[in-house]
Amino acid sequence: MTARLPPCLPSPPGLKGRGTPVRIAHRFERESREPFDDGWGTLDQQAALETLPAATQVIEERAKSLLARNDSPDVPFELSINPYRGCEHGCIYCYARPTHSYLNLSPGLDFETRIVAKVNAAERLEEELAKPSYRPSPVNIGSATDAYQPVERRLGITRQVLEVLERCRHPYTIVTKSSGIERDLDLLASAAARQQAWVSVSITTLDPALARKLEPRAAAPHRRLQTVRRLREAGVPVGVNVAPIIPFINEPEIERIIEAAADAGAASIHYTVLRLPWEVDPLFQDWLARHFPERAARVMAHVREMHGGRDYRAEFGKRMKGDGLWAQLVRQRVRQAAKRCGIEGAAPALDTSAFVPPRRGRQQELF
């Protein structure tokens, strides 16, 4: 069954620099709204408003906790940190969009224009690392939303988190599609010298025109490749994540992306296929109909083939790589291309033995 936008949220014209112009109702909404023509041109006025650029609003939050624990066998880390909720990159395929529903905000336009910043992240991290019960394990930064999205340039919350990890000699990994990570090469290189840092740069396409449609405010493809080079030159282990692979959209580029990654110095290759949980499904299909109407049916047919006949299957072991013949073909293409390019390594093991807990405060030190 094809998911559709709610009738109260018709698909308006695209917004420049945004992944979707739609403030789709989230799954917890108790009220619904329908457009009504009152004879005064209200619908025309609404359409005109939808074409205006949507400004980004930063909502400051004092987080009660920072370290999130993971129990999924699909990801290679137990702990994660996300300094921000929502992401201005606006990637239409982002599987984290539905998390904005818990904030009573739309997983559509609100997700990329209303960014929650955990302004006390460094403070909370120190408190959690100082607990006597804490046992060090490599922590992933940016597992849900990009820690180097545009607002980070001004707020520097991710930088503060890295400074805490540096002082504590704590290992970490980072996933990003932003060249903003280059700002922190000093901290990354220091941690990498102790075998305590690894970075994965996501590269979805080499086509700048497609990138502007898929992920409008993320770094351009050539800048991400340059970031891979600069990380490698600084001695930071770096891999490339070809993700998500979307049939007939960026899937034809698999081999070229891996070749470009190898030329830039990537030591490992990872990938995932398109995932459409909850509200991401209608948002992506609206985007697909808007930009690629002539191939929308074929794209979704192969997406469903990889997810057991459904738009998305959340089953562990299947949700990220898919299943079936098409998924197997993608897996083989990725492996063979990486092997041809001489990339057969995996993410390096990180050292936890040098961890030094932060000081727990002067008053506690007296006892």
The CATH class designation is Alpha Beta
Q: Helix proportion of residues, in percent? A: 25-40%
Number of domains: 1
Number of helices: 13
Termini separation:
64 Å
Overall geometric form: globular
Q: What's the pLDDT, averaged over the residues?
A: 89
- Note the beta-strand portion: 5-15%
- Alpha-beta content class: alpha/beta
Summarize the structure.
33% of the residues lie in helices and 12% in strands. It is built from 13 helices and ten strands. It comes from Caldimonas aquatica.
Could you please describe the fold and organization of this structure?
It is a single chain. The protein is α/β, with parallel strands linked by helices and 367 residues long. The chain has a single domain (53-341), classed as pyruvate-formate lyase- activating enzyme (Alpha-Beta Horseshoe). Helices cover 33% and strands 12% of the residues. It is built from 13 helices and 10 strands. It has helices at 42-50, 109-113, 121-129, 152-155, 157-168, 185-193, 208-214, 221-233, 254-264, 280-291, 296-306, 325-340, 362-365, and strands at residues 57-61, 68-69, 79-81, 84-85, 114-118, 139-141, 172-176, 197-202, 238-245, 269-273. The strands form 2 sheets. A 7-stranded mixed β-sheet has the order 2-3-6-7-8-9-10, with helices on one face. A 3-stranded mixed β-sheet has the order 1-5-4. Helix 3 packs parallel to helix 5. The radius of gyration is 21 Å and the shape is globular. 41% of the residues are buried. The model is unreliable at 6-10 and 362-367 (pLDDT under 50). Pfam families: Radical_SAM (PF04055). Residues 73-310 form the Radical SAM core domain. This is PA0069 family radical SAM protein. InterPro entries: Elp3/MiaA/NifB-like_rSAM (IPR006638), MJ0683-like (IPR040086), rSAM (IPR007197), rSAM_sf (IPR058240).
